[in-house]
């Protein structure tokens, strides 16, 4: 399997992951300047247990990194992915870091 990562139309506000023309999953987003707000992640229910969501999250995170963008996850899947992948914590907006309680000293 050699999945391709696509944003078929910049106005679609959806990044998609395909393999041989078959949709593996997608992430919906809104773009505000250099901030990408990730609102929903979905994988193909016909392909369970294949880690397509994680593969999609990795690709989107790297895409944002290469484009100088920061991430604000609203989607619970993406929030969990970022919480459990410290190598990507630097991609979060300051607000995202506070919401996910990543790298924050406790107030007190």
Automatic annotation (TrEMBL):
Residues 7-93 form the N-acetyltransferase domain. InterPro entries: Acyl_CoA_acyltransferase, GNAT_YJDJ. It comes from the Bacteria. This is N-acetyltransferase domain-containing protein. It comes from Oxalicibacterium faecigallinarum.
């Amino acid at each position: 399997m050699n999945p391709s990562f696509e944003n078929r139309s910049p106005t679609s506000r959806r990044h998609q992951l395909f393999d041989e023309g078959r949709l593996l999953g997608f992430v919906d987003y809104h773009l505000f300047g250099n901030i990408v707000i990730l609102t929903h992640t979905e994988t193909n229910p016909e392909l369970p247990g294949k880690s397509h969501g994680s593969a999609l999250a990795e690709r989107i995170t790297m895409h944002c990194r290469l484009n100088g963008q920061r991430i604000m996850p609203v989607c619970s899947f993406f929030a969990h992915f970022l919480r459990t992948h410290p190598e990507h914590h630097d991609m979060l907006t300051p607000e995202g870091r506070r919401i996910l309680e990543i790298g924050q000293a406790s107030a007190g």
